[in-house]
Structures are given as C-alpha cells and as structure tokens.
Amino acid sequence: MSGGEVGVAYTTTLSASGGSSPYTWALDGGALPGGLTLGSDGGVSGVPTTPGTFNFTVKASDSANQYTTQGATIKVSPHLAATLIPACAQACYVEQGCANVCGNFGSQSGGVAPFTYQGSGNIPGGMKVSGLSLAGSFPQLAQFWQFNVTITDSLGATASLSPIFYVFKHITITKTSWLCGNSPSSCQLLIPYVGGTPNGRPTFKVIGVTGYAGRGGALIGVQLVTGGCGSTGTTSPPPPQWQTTSAGGGTLTYTLQNPNRNQYPCYYYSGRITIELVDQSPCGSPTNCTSNTAIIDISV
Question: What average pLDDT is seen over the chain?
Fold first, then answer.
C-alpha cells in the first residue's frame, strides 16, 4: 500500500476481484497506523499520527459470505522538517570567491521523496539554490544576504528556511613588493592585508623562490652561503629557523634573523621569495582561500 506521512491526510481504497460483489471489508489482524481507519467499503483514510511501519491483515467478504484475507503494510514517515545547520544559526559567514563548498545552510528530515526546493528573496548574485545549499561562486560584493527556501515533498508537505549569509571580503595583501635587508643580519616587515576571516589569523606560505636584481641591477641568484665566501646556489627559501611570522588584525609580521652573519660575514642568504596568505575559510575543496601574492627581496 502507498506510504503516508505524519500530519498529512491519507486516503486509499482496497480492491478485490471474483466472488459476488459488493464486498465488505474488515480488519482481521494487526493494527492500522494511528489516525487511520478502514471503512467497510475498503476505504482507508485519516491523518497519520505516528511514524513507523505497520503490518496488518484485512478480510474481504462477498455477498455470498465467501471471504479471503490479505496481509498489507503501510509505512508512515515522520513529518517533513528542516533546520539551519549550527554554523548558520545566526548567519553563514562566507569569504568572497568561495565556490560551492561554502553554500550548505540547512538539513532536513522526514517527508516522502522526491523533494523540490524553491528559493525566493535576496539570493547572492550569480548563485542558485541546490537543495539546502547554494551553488556557484560567492559574489565580490561583501554584504548580508537573506532569502527563503521552501521544501515540498511528494505528498505536498512543506517546510521552510530563511538563511542569512554574510559574505566578507576576500583576503588581499595591499602592498606587494618588499625589501628585507635593512640591517646586515635581520629585518622585520609589517605587511598589511585586508579582508579574510573576521578576527582570523591567516598563515604565511612561500610559493616561489627566484633570484632578483640587486642594487647594481645584475640578477643575483638564490644563494645560501654557510661557510667560505664562495656562492652556493639553492632553490629553497631561507632556513625555517631564521623565519618567524604571525598574522592578525590586518598585519602580517615577517621577521628574518640570520643568527650567523655577525660572527661569520660570509654566512648569508639572498633571493626573492613569493608569498601568499592562507586564510582560515574555505574557497574550494579541499583548499582554503588564499590572498594575492607579494614578493620579498632578501639579502641578510
């Protein structure tokens, strides 16, 4: 027999063949779902009150008092319900440029498939409702967006959500060229950035190492000299133990300290590193948002 749903009107009619009509129907064993009744004409109707799978037996008798019995099952699903996920209880916070993976805002339970989803209101530009999620890339306009989504199941039951998304600015380094060599053995740079996860602390990442043009204009290769004054080529950034970084409040603090330069004049590093900031918010799967790049020319 067809399935039902708690709180949704249910109706179906049993049928028989052979014998001498009309037929009279009765329950012969088990129990119907709560809220449903079986009429003598074979009609099953009512509004289910309890979810579950209900097995029972019906008896059909004809006008000549001949009868037959048949087992039947009705499955009653919980009423359709939807709720915002915990991360979106007040608002879903998303970084500009995030594509698809940031769009989930709700979960649902109960109801009878298939389901349809209808969005209305202030949906972020260029995006569309896909189930209880937004598909597409979040727009470059940082603001609050609120819209409605109505879910309808195959029995006509509905549930609605009104999520709010706050799209914050993508993390961006605002000064992208730096010189690290303001003293013989160390430097400290305060590199400004805007946007990114509110109150977040992005991390520093070196994504490229090359030579650079020194003060005389000649291209200097990447060098790490650890002994005599001969040049030793390398493709690596400065040794990790020389570098400390911290970010927050719109500033990346980059400190480079050569611990050997004062004692060993020919112990030095020179090269250009290309960096980016990695934010704490996702922009894709499985990557977090990253800033534009900046270059630091190093000679310490």
Answer: 89
